[in-house]
Every structure is written in structure tokens, then in C-alpha cells.
Amino acid sequence: MGKTWNNRAWLMVLPVMALVAFNAIIPLMTVVNYSVQDTFGNNIFFFEGVKWYEALLASERFHAALVRQFAFTFTILLIEIPLGVAIALAMPRRGAWVSVCLVLMALPLLIPWNVVGAMWNIFALPDIGLLGYGLNALGIDYNFTQQPVSAWFTVILMDVWHWTSLVVLLAYAGLSSIPDAYYQAAKIDSASRWAVFRHIQLPKMKRVLTIAVLLRFMDSFMIYTEPFVLTGGGPGNATTLLSIDLVKAALGEFNLGIAAAMSIIYFLMTLLFCWVFYTLMMRGEEQ
């Protein structure tokens, strides 16, 4: 007996598709439209083709912002992923302390991004901030408002404090899903702690770690509020990431063509690198 197809279910999807089109496709096409045109005001536009893309790709300012963005992204990934896994491994699996640890881990994620930037701005001030005053008291010359290295250190430390908890919670969820039978078998075989981690825990965390890497990569590429509130992209342009440079071009300089072209390239780069990360981390998963 053949199957009876009922396509009326698509009618239930139409409202969602309309909402996605309104919230994503229409704004995206508007940005594409701005990226190939120029305007002198009064809503009068002139078609310029790929002029803004050529100017952007030849811009040393864009190249510098891109290098800073990649340096920031890969630095926080190299710190937060191993640190998050290590903390998750150290957390208890049973007992009253489980809830306490989970709540403590979730607290940084509940703080609004602008508040995080303001908190760390005060915390890191060299004269009155606990971090800044403490480091200077130890003989370390630290001033994130004037020294690029100190500014980078502060921005990265702030991001690690804010977002490592996300990796911890995802890794802990992966560890909690491992049946006790695996650990019992490893104990019978006298497996070392490293062998248990390498052959049992790490493979079982592969999917959640893939999600963690993708989320942190996308978040780090889109980060704006925290570093802007903390340093404003300074000192100079030392911490001007791609997002900050984009906002400066669009709102500060009102250079809509360059800003739109940067947005499109920004968007495509994020999609490309997320696809590469996902493909590499899930390679061999089907086997």
C-alpha cells in the first residue's frame, strides 16, 4: 500500500519562513544593496559595483583589524576550550555540590555584556581598580588605558572570565551523559586517568565540544559591547576588532558603502570558518 502524502503541513511552516525572511533575508539584501551603491543624501543612490569591496580589500586598516580579530579569536579559543574542559572534569558528578557548582558557573553568563565591560573597566583601572592597583603594587607596569599589551591582556582576561563558563557547562553535560559502565570497564582494565580521558571522556564530549568551539568562534567574531565599553578600541587602535571598526565606519564616519561591504565580507568569513571548523571536528563521525 502506497504512502499518502499530505503537503498541508507546509502551511504551518509559512509563518516561520515569513518571519525569517523579514528578520534575516530582507536586512541582508538591504546591506548588499548599500555595498554596491553610493549616496550623497536625500535618499539618492548611485550604482558603484564592487568599488567598495576593492577599496576595503586594499585597505591596510581593514587588514589590521582582521589580524587583530583572528589573534583575539584564536587566543581565547586556545585558552577557554582546554580550561573549560579541565574545570568540567574537576566538578563533582553527584551530591549537593553539583547544584552549587552549576549555579556558580552560570553566573557570569547572566550578566549583561555592557555591565561586564563596565565591571572590568573599574576592576582594571591602574589607580583604584583591584586588578590594576594590585599588579602595579607587585611591580608590574600595568595601565590598559595607555599600553596596548595591557589592553590586550585585559580584554582577553575579561572574555575568559565571561565565557569559559559556557564551555564548562557544555563539557559537563557531555561528561554527565557517559554511562558508569564505561568507567567500570576502565577500572577493571586498570586504565590510567589519561587513558580514561583520551578513550572515554574526550570522544563522548566531541559533539558538545564542537558546539562549544562553534559558539565561541561566532561569539568572538561578533563581540563588540564588552571590549568597546572596556577600552573603546584603544589605546589607539590596539583593541579595535572588526566589529568595532565596522561600527566606527558606519556610525562614526557614516561611510555606508564601506561599512556594508565590510558587513558582507564579515558575514561570509564567519560562515566559512564555522563550516571549516565543523567539517574538521566532525570528520570521521559517520564511521
What does this entry look like structurally?
The chain has a two-stranded antiparallel ribbon with strand order 1-2. It has 2 domains: 12-49, no CATH class; 60-281, MetI-like fold (Orthogonal Bundle), CATH 1.10.3720.10. The protein has helices at 10-35, 51-57, 60-90, 97-110, 113-124, 130-137, 148-176, 180-188, 193-204, 206-222, 225-231, 242-252, 256-281, and strands at residues 37-39, 45-47. The protein is 73% helix and 2% strand. With 287 residues, the chain is mainly alpha-helical. A hairpin with a 5-residue loop joins β1 and β2 (45-47).
Structure described in brief:
This protein has 287 residues and is an all-alpha fold. The chain has 13 helices and 2 strands, in the order αββαααααααααααα. The protein has helices at 10-35, 51-57, 60-90, 97-110, 113-124, 130-137, 148-176, 180-188, 193-204, 206-222, 225-231, 242-252, 256-281; strands spanning 37-39, 45-47.
Structural class category: mainly alpha
Number of domains: 2
The CATH class of the largest domain is Mainly Alpha
Shape, per Cα inertia axes: globular
> What percent of residues adopt helix (DSSP H or I)?
over 70%
How is the main sheet built? 2 strands, antiparallel
* Distance linking N and C termini: 34 Å
Give the CATH architecture of the largest domain: Orthogonal Bundle
Q: Regions with pLDDT < 50 over 5+ consecutive residues?
A: none
Count of extended strands = 2
**Name of the CATH superfamily of the largest domain:** MetI-like
Q: What is the strand content?
A: under 5%
How is the largest sheet built, in terms of strand order? 1-2
Number of helices: 13
Over all CA atoms, what is the radius of gyration?
A: 24 Å
The overall pLDDT average reads 87
